[in-house]
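Figure 2 data, in text form.
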Amino acid sequence: MWIAIVLLVIGFVVLILGANWLVDGATSVGIRAKLSPLIIGLTIVAFGTSLPELIVNVFSCVKGNSGLAIGNIVGSNIMNILLILGVASAIYPIDVSRISIRRDIPVGFLATAALFLMANDFFLGQSHTINWIEGLILLLMAGGYLYLTMVKNEKPDGEVEAVQIPLPWWKTILFLVIGIVGLYVGGELVSNNAQIIAKAWGMSDALIGLTVVAMATSLPELITSIVAATKKNAGIAIGNVLGSNILNIFIVLGISSLITPLQFDIQMNVTLGILFFANMLLLLFVFTGKGRKLSRFEGFLMLLAFAGFMTYTILTA
């Protein structure tokens, strides 16, 4: 049992390091392709911080453990909003750009609504599962969002485009290769040992995905947002979280459902309701107070809401 816990922790570390290396390499490629910093942030960085969720889900689905997949994504998205934005705005108030208000926050609501409708059989009516057809729909929605992002590539309010220098080609390729290997090894360790721990503790796959795995796979977003907040670059913090939440549902669940139908426990409708609440809380805080921003006080309120969510999840396990 303790060996499984140690290997799980090692797996998460390797997974996060692999994602960071892959993002650095991919960002260097993006700079060489003359993509703007905003496009790189909303696509490469946001997808890079979603890679741990994707890798864990893919390995779990390949091994027939699809119950962990939806719990991992819903838990990660709740933590991204309540915990990560709560911590980031408590460190330094976050200004929310007009682009995020007009595009990213509404698309986040749309993604959550699509997940709810698909999981509850409003489309194809197949016994609380998300199948490959619905997965394709999610991937098409991801394509639409990315296209919208590329078209509306204006800079957020007040952002000054920085000059970025790409890594040397040898280092770019090295980072890409090491990142891919790290993701593979970390994904194997996390997937295998999470199942061992879940069975030993009598936890369901959905519960361990909602708590342990979701918390760990959200670490890249947490680290990125804390670093951005301490550097008073709050736009990266909220852009990273909103982009990751959208890609988690559209791409991660879309790809996962192509591998095997994703089983949905109807009791998780309450958790989906909490995710809707988190999105509504974010929108409410953006439009209250002075300016379009998340204040330190609102950040502390989000952290209190996250504590309530974790308490509810553990007590109702």
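Caption note: The first strand starts at residue 94 and ends at 95.
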